[in-house]
Amino acid sequence: MIVEIPGVFSPQESAVLVERLRAAQWVDGKVTAGAQSQRVKQNRQLAGDDPLAREIGDDIIDRLAKDAVFMSAALPKRIYPPLFNSYTGGEAFGFHIDNAVRGIRASRERVRTDLSATLFLSDPSTYDGGELVIRDTYGEQRVKLPAGHMILYPGSSVHKVEPVTRGERIASFFWVESLVREDAQRSLLLDMDVAIQRLTQQQASDDALIQLTGCYHNLLRMWADC
Fold this sequence. Notes:
Elements: E1 3-5, H1 11-22, E2 26-28, H2 35-38, E3 44-46, H3 51-65, H4 68-74, E4 76-79, E5 83-88, E6 93-96, E7 101-103, E8 110-112, E9 115-120, E10 128-129, E11 132-136, E12 139-143, E13 150-154, E14 159-161, E15 164-166, E16 168-178, H5 183-201, H6 206-223
Antiparallel strand pairs: 1-13, 2-3, 3-5, 4-16, 5-16, 6-14, 7-8, 9-13, 9-16, 10-15, 11-12, 11-14
Helix pairs in contact: 5-6
């Protein structure tokens, strides 16, 4: 399941964040890559303990907690503190798969990476290339979103970032441990939740809504790993 989360930040807010991030101290992106990924990763990142990364990361998590689409699609249990990367001058990240479990810095807590997230911050008209390419059941999905929009996709996906041949691509990326581990189950629950919301707007009969809502919550009760 690949889900777009629109408008986490407005274009104007994203532009301000990009300017602030450009002035930050960037380090080699290989610092957070595993042994296999290091061979295909060429970019820069903010250090995980950078004050600006923590400030903006906290804002991202606060906004997502109020975002109905994200909450319904991800059913988050834990969120890895957002990181930030930059691609420019032909930098890219070849095909790879994210580590299944990641330890949170300065903490004993671990996050199972059920879902991967990329929040695009740079205006796509300011850079060429930089598409996020995700392999799924239907082939390769190429993603390049407007500034402030986010893509959520299974952490088990093989994916890459195409070379940035003009300008600079700045984005945030992180992982989500879901209450529901299996992607197919999360997808079914999302479809049911969307149907419930539409039927509510259409003023469907109370009995039908109660029955469908009951099925949703009973499935969530069956599948949730709390």
